[in-house]
Write a structure and sequence with these properties.
The complex is a heterodimer of chains A (113) and B (108). Chain A has 113 residues and is an all-beta fold. In chain A, 0% of the residues lie in helices and 50% in strands. In chain A, a hairpin with a 2-residue loop joins strand 5 and strand 6. Chain A is globular and about 40 Å long. Classes of the chains: A mainly beta (113), B mainly beta (108).
Chain lengths: 113, 108
């Protein structure tokens, strides 16, 4: 079992650019959530995808968007990057929409310069 | 609104016991998760409390009082590898809300 895999592991982008991050959930999981973790802070919920639809969203602007594919994998897109978007982006997968253990990937470290 | 309060840092001695407290105010509460996160790594699941009371799992135990909005994580027989951040996360139906975490340093 490969667990939750994310790609790429590290990424450097220029302010104003767009970025796409990818996540493959743990085998048997159908729900993917995305989190942003700034240095020294806890992860902040961005949104959750289940059955290829965004089910709930945290307090993030529309520049943050996502997608879930039929195989349950997911993408996080961020447009018009700001310096403040520099963070560790974590993907977590689970079965069903709530009340079950979420498994996290190793994350993508995004640096905006 | 949603508010989660944990101590920022704690230190303890190898072999000792430490209790990390968490108070929370959230909407749509289903249960409370505790995660461990080593520096530069992903959070890993430690425990999940739905009902009030103590859940014991090896060296780690977690307690929940829903009426008081209070939880704690108890770590026994501390080891050096327990040095990490511990994240309290009240869980709603669709998401986890994390606190800033407690950085625990275990010394010999």
């Amino acid at each position: 079992d490969a667990g939750v895999t994310q790609s790429p592991t590290h990424l450097i982008k220029t302010r104003g650019q767009q970025v796409t991050l990818r996540c493959s959930p743990k085998s048997g999981h159908d729900t993917v959530s995305w989190y942003q973790q700034a240095l020294g802070q806890g992860p902040q919920f961005i949104f959750q995808y289940y059955e290829e639809e965004e089910r709930q969203r945290g307090n993030f602007p529309d520049r943050f968007s996502g997608h879930q594919f039929p195989n349950y994998s997911s993408e996080l897109n961020v447009n018009a990057l700001l310096l403040g978007d520099s963070a560790l982006y974590l993907c977590a997968s689970s079965w069903g929409q709530g009340g079950t253990e979420a498994f996290f990937g190793q994350g993508t470290r995004l640096t905006v310069v | 609104g949603q508010n989660i309060d944990q101590p920022t840092e704690m230190t303890a001695t190898e072999g000792a016991i430490v209790q990390i407290n968490c108070t929370y105010q959230t909407s749509g509460f289903n249960g409370l998760f505790w995660y461990q996160q080593h520096a530069g790594e992903a959070p890993t699941f430690l425990s999940y409390n739905v009902l009030d009371g103590l859940e014991e799992k090896g060296r780690f135990s977690s307690f929940l009082s829903r009426s008081k909005g209070y939880s704690y994580l108890l770590l026994k027989e501390l080891q050096m590898k327990d040095s990490a951040s511990y994240l309290c996360a009240p869980g709603g139906y669709n998401k986890l809300i994390f606190g800033a975490g407690t950085r625990l340093a275990v010394h010999p």
